[in-house]
Amino acid sequence: TGGTVVNATGTATADVLVDGENIVAVLAPGSALLGVDLAQNVDAVVDATGKYVIPGGIDAHTHMELPFGGTNASDTFETGTRAAAWGGTTSIIDFAVQRYGERVEDGLASWHAKAAGNCAVDYGFHQIIGGVDEFSLKAMDSLIDEGITSFKLFMAYPGVFYSDDAQILKAMQKSAETGLVTMMHAENGPAIDVLAQQLYETGKTSPYFHGIARAWQMEEEATHRAIMIADLTGAPLYVVHVSAKQAVEQIAAARDRGRNVFGETCPQYLYLSLEEQLGASSPEWGDFEGAKWVCSTPLRSRPEGHQDAMWQALRTNDLQMVSTDHCPFCMKEQKELGRGDFRAIPNGIGSIEHRMDLMYQGVVTGQISLPRWVELTSTTPARMFGLYGRKGAVQPGADADLVIYDPSGHTSIGYEKTHHMNMDHSAWEGYEIDGHVDWVMSRGSVIVDESGYVGSKGHGQFLKRDLSQYLL
Ligand code: DUC
Ligand code: ZN
Ligand code: ZN
């Protein structure tokens, strides 16, 4: 009661009535319903006066337990979704993996086995197609019935997930035919691998050179190529983890030509930089601490203006969403695999717990508006990936996934203070947020209150997703 309900469309002071797992009404404050005084006739009243009531966050890009870089991403579905809950995220869409040579059905089944019964919040899957061939193309026909309405291809990581242009063309034809959204990791992997090898051979082995090898030209080029093949085939295209301003320009140009092309960025590309993180600690090229921030696409150079360009693109809708690409690794025994050779550092940052806060700080600093915060972190993810109606808005009929966010609260992010991800460090140490996640409800169950996390493993259910609402 009494909170400011924030939806993508605007804000209003309102009471939100929840029955069972659903929102059943959004009402003028203190109003009676069918002559019944609500405050006297409900099981519980939660006072949200002076606070924001928002739809639970949807993180549409996570990698729990991903086998990658010679190890596994360190959050399980249990630990990762619990951290999500702490941070006001009530749905995730993780990437089920089909490895080259594996059946898509088997890859998907193994992902269901990891997640089922373990999640604190609801979860859906995208399907990574690690080997486009006649078998996987055939299997893609059944994905929609499984509630999986998007797949991801990689133009990077030759020998791991990589698809060449012929494979991309075939998969995009399938995308156009079925309505599955093509999600693209757009970096020119074969060229990057040569650059990385050359750097390594000349003794440039520190984490900093991860970012040098993965040059923005390699992101711009791959983004352009993906857009052109999507243009030719008519596939809806969603470019993941955009970090280079030149890649945004490609997406914006395609959208200006009327193409059905979308892009997400991540908090790390808005806040962190190549210089400050990967090269911070040494006057020369950075020490191994920089490994904490090795991810792909990489952190970009601040003097080149990439971070500012990402914020601007979020305002102009050239980018539509913010996901985390949550892919955590510990320093000990994981990132350390790449000591002396940046190519062997497992790629990834853990941010699932902090996305809602970090993006709210963009409201505080005037980068985005309050409704845009909700749109970028919940409403558009729901619409893009076939969850809208159930998720993504505070409206009657929706799942009661609600967050009470306190704009007078404060969150000091740090490993000792506010860390629930299964990692031995925070990539966000020292970030101060002028707001706080006070209370979180998932499908009618309170999972975070003033005492902390009160949810349970297994509460989260698999989300069978509908087709994207952004299909033409
Ligand atoms: N990038 C990462 O940083 N980690 C997982 C996969 C990816 O594309
Ligand atoms: Zn990727
Ligand atoms: Zn990813």
TrEMBL record:
Secretion signal, residue range per the UniProt entry: none
This protein's record includes keyword Hydrolase: yes
InterPro entries, A to Z: Amidohydro-rel (IPR006680), Hydantoinase/dihydroPyrase (IPR011778), Metal-dep_hydrolase_composite (IPR011059), Metal_Hydrolase (IPR032466), Metallo-dep_Hydrolases_sf (IPR050378)
Domain annotation Amidohydrolase-related: ranges: 52-446
CDD domains: D-HYD
Keywords, sorted A to Z: Hydrolase, Metal-binding
Cofactor(s) annotated in UniProt: Zn(2+)
Domain of life: Bacteria
UniProt xrefs under Pfam families: Amidohydro_1
Presence of keyword DNA repair: no
Similarity field: Belongs to the metallo-dependent hydrolases superfamily. Hydantoinase/dihydropyrimidinase family.
Classification via NCBIfam families: D-hydantoinase
Name assigned to this protein: Dihydropyrimidinase
Native organism: Microlunatus ginsengisoli
